[in-house]
Amino acid sequence: MDLDDAIRTAEQLAASVRDTGVQPAYAELETAIRGFQEEGYPLESILPQGSDARLGFSMRSADGRTFFQIYAALLRKSLCGADGEFNKLIKSGTSSSVGAILGAMVIALGIPPIALGIMVPVAAIIANLGLDSFCEMTKPEG
Q1: pTM: predicted TM-score of the whole model, two decimal places
Q2: In three state form, how does the secondary structure of the chain look?
């Protein structure tokens, strides 16, 4: 899967999530995680730089929803800051585009192409939440 294929798939999944709820994205995420691991790739390879690698271990047996919750907190640190990629998308007015969100995640996090299948449902969920809402809901308490 190349980035163009991933964007098309993410747009279709985002539309499905808008119509039927988030469950299809969680199911797709579980499938993508299993496939990624079966190919022999470690989940640690998709962790944002500076993240605690032990979190990769806790994600290994997670279902799609739990994986998203753990991964979302990690993404927030890299993408939601004042100079983060999501803030740039919001300012540019492209924050509702699942393709822009997917591209920002891949570029900012240095995601390997083999992991695009995992990033597609993550981007679809974030696109349906909205970037502001995603960044707000993943804000650490306190």
Answers
A1: 0.87
A2: CCHHHHHHHHHHHHHHHHHHCCHHHHHHHHHHHHHHHHCCCCHHHHCCCCCCCHHHHHHCCCCHHHHHHHHHHHHHHHHCCCCCHHHHHHHHCCCCCHHHHHHHHHHHHCCCHHHHHHHHHHHHHHHHHCHHHHHHHCCCCC
